[in-house]
TrEMBL record:
Residues 25-243 form the Aminoglycoside phosphotransferase domain. This is Predicted aminoglycoside phosphotransferase. It comes from Mycolicibacterium gilvum (strain DSM 45189 / LMG 24558 / Spyr1). It comes from the Bacteria. Pfam families: APH.
Amino acid sequence: MSDDLARALEDVLRPVLGDTTVEDLQRLTGGASRTTWAFTSRSDGRSRHLILRTGARDDIHASMELEAKVQQRAAAAGAPVPHILAADNSPDAVGEPYLICDAIAGETIVRKIFRMLDDTGRARLLTQCATALAAIHRADPDGVGLAAPDELAGWRTRLDEIGDTTATFEWTFRRLADERPDPSPMRLVHGDFRMGNLIVDDSGLAAVLDWELTHKGEIYEDLAWFCIRAWRFGAAESLGAGGLGSVETFLQAYESAAQIVLDRSTFRWWLTVATLRWGVICRHQAERHLSGEARSVELAAIGRRVSETEWDLLDLLSGKGPQ
């Protein structure tokens, strides 16, 4: 299969790079919705390290062509993203829709990143994350076909599809509906901006990855998602923003980069939505295991985190939570 794929990639890259040979094609681990390959292209005596991402089209994730367009717009606004060489929604060339981009050196495994960083490095990376988000939110979201979903209604539907709920989830949905703040302007949002979807090198943030959940939305959605417990990866509660620093420090860094003032009560509402979103995801993953759809110790373990998420929701609804 890899030989056939290598030949297909040579055909795809020839219009972009000229006569090309593909070598060292290796499938990488990780990625829940996309398959990722690393390889080297050789053209005119020059080698280039590239990444191939493939994945069938569905109703949840952005298409490959949409991902490419959004990343190009984010790059134009100043966000660090991989350079895109080619993308196609058709499966004809390589068997599935695909995206090819330059490989970016650095680390994505969060616990390794934490070990790399001292206090100064964490503070620098936190500021870089805030600055990158501000750039993403400045990018033009129009004219590329981005959806603009209602996040609260969407996760309500997702939970209802499982046919199970908890008292805490139900109370949270009602409180969020009753206390919904006035909407803010719709921007380009990443949709899954968090530790684990970032490449970090010795200089800090090297690239923002995994754009398959990109859409139009409020900036608070991205800011809040970065700050839920799951993406601290065991770091202290005082490091509520991605395990790097305090939530307030993160918000102030974003305000400085974006030249706006954030509403803290609106952010807290969105932080509650983000926490509820993670809880529904955990319950959904448990259901995949319990129903027999995909028997997995990992899915079962994620399902056990529903109770952790309920605790966080009760804290947020009672006025507590990360600082």
